[in-house]
Amino acid sequence: MRQVFLDTETTGLSPESGDRIVEIGCVELLNRRLSGRNLHYYLNPERRSSEDAARIHGLSDEFLAEKPLFATVVDELLDYLAGAEIIIHNASFDIGFLNEELRRIGRPKVQALGVRITDSLLMAREMFPGKSNSLDSLCKRLEVDNTGRSLHGALLDAGLLAEVYIRMTRGQESLVIDDTTIDAGESATDAPDLSAFALPVLSADAEELAAHEALLSALDEASHGKTVWRRAMA
Predict the structure, then answer these.
(1) For a disulfide at 23, which of 5, 9, 165, 195, Cβ 3.0-4.6 Å?
(2) Residue 217: which pLDDT band, with cuts at 50, 70 and 90?
(3) Handedness of CA 80, 136, 225, 32 (dihedral sign)
């Protein structure tokens, strides 16, 4: 199972009014494990960001003016996304921007790639009705560390979304499966005796450590060197 968690940053809120994508971040999971094969672009939007958008993503017009155009990265992006389940928080926003960028250069919509698009915001609203379901709120509720998120960054947010999604869909909470019927005199809250179990400790192999380091380095780059672990190591 291949899943891609995708996020974008933009010059504003309306692709129909000419707003453009300035950053794309993608994090890949294979069978619910980080692969380390992520994708990240800063893009020249050929226009200025609105003041509100610039405050959110922190990317200056001067910085973006030196970056590639969407048209120059589109083939690599589409090849990467093809056939995957794409998971996006508030998918209509990001897909709307991607489809408008594709329309400008005469390409079909994202949906033509044969992808499945999953909106994690709709999932969260079903799981936590009546509550705030922003990415920050979900990180706090599901105990995902987002202390390095002083600004929005597409790759950083895609990584956080992957963590949130795994916790939203993890299913079984216990290592012990007990399908016996509880007698009338027993307490359903009695703790099981685990003394007979010896749980193995599995260390990460070299490939897994390399994938983990690649993700950390990419998140550090996306946050412009503001990640807590890099500062602590320094």
Answers:
(1) 9
(2) confident
(3) negative
Residue 150's nearest CA partner among 81, 210, 231 is 231
Amino acid at 35: S
Domain 2-172+202-233 has CATH 2.60.34.10: no
The answer to whether residues 144 and 131 touch, using CB atoms and an 8 Å cutoff, is: no
Residue 77 structure tokens: 């992006």
- Model confidence at 212: pLDDT above 90: no
- Report the C-alpha gap between 68 and 183 in whole angstroms: 67
Active site residues: 152
Global pTM exceeds 0.85: no
The CA radius of gyration of the chain, in Å to the nearest whole number, is 21
Cα angle value 226/3/108 (rounded, 5°): 100
For β-strands 21-30 and 33-34, DSSP reports them as: antiparallel
Q: Please report which confidence band the pLDDT of residue 88 belongs to, taking 50, 70 and 90 as the band edges.
A: very high
Which residue in 36, 42, 37 sits closest to 59, CA to CA? Answer: 42
